[in-house]
Amino acid sequence: MPKVGMQPIRRSQLIAATLEAVDQVGMADASIAYIARLAGVSNGIISHYFNDKNGLLEATMRHLMQALSDAVGARRRALREDSPRAHLKAMIDGNFDDSQVSGPAMKTWLAFWASSMHQPALRRLQRVNDHRLYSNLCGQFHRALPRDQARFAARGLASLIDGLWLRGALSGEAFDTEQARRIAYDYLDLQLAKAS
Fold first, then answer.
1. Cβ count near 18 (within 10 Å)
2. Considering the entire predicted model, what is its pTM?
């Protein structure tokens, strides 16, 4: 019988091992046995908590999405002004937070996106994530722009954030956070200039 209070510790330990495994060998070669070995547990523990590798990937992605939400939320709560531009910059910054652009996180996001095309549970999770980004951007743009322009600007900024992130992930080099922010800020300013 497992010790009381061990479930959150074990789940966290297995998620960290999954991130490490994907970083080291990629999702295809990150077997249950490999992840269990990195975590220092038996294969059965993974089955007990996550059923299978897909369940573990889903939990790992929920972890990364929560880290993303926390990064954006912390930046928005720390704002000194309540302007659309300030909130949108905070969202950009949160999407390029260290928790999202580290090697393990980037490789896991890429594996998740590829897997989400074939697995309904992961596809739903991706849609939730995509919708959350778009609706939050749209809400802030709509404070400054008419609805149709706000939607257009939000879709463009969401695409730009994803595209900058993807190009950075595939570059094989350390992610240039400052350059990504500058490019996204420039787009943001161009869109908000339409309000005047």
1. 28
2. 0.90
Tens of pLDDT, residues 42-62: 889 898 899 988 899 999 999
Contacts of 147 (CB under 8 A, 6+ apart): none
Burial 78-100 (b: 16+ CB within 10 A, else e): eeeeeebbebbbbbbbbbbbeeb
Type of residue at 112: F
Res 172: pLDDT: 86
Q: Helix or strand or coil: residue 51?
A: coil
Counts of helices then strands in the chain (DSSP H, E)? 10, 0
Domains of the chain (ranges; CATH) run: 1-51 (1.10.10.60), 54-195 (1.10.357.10)
Q: What angle do CA 160, 115, 134 make, to 5 degrees?
A: 30
Tokens of 137: 């951007």
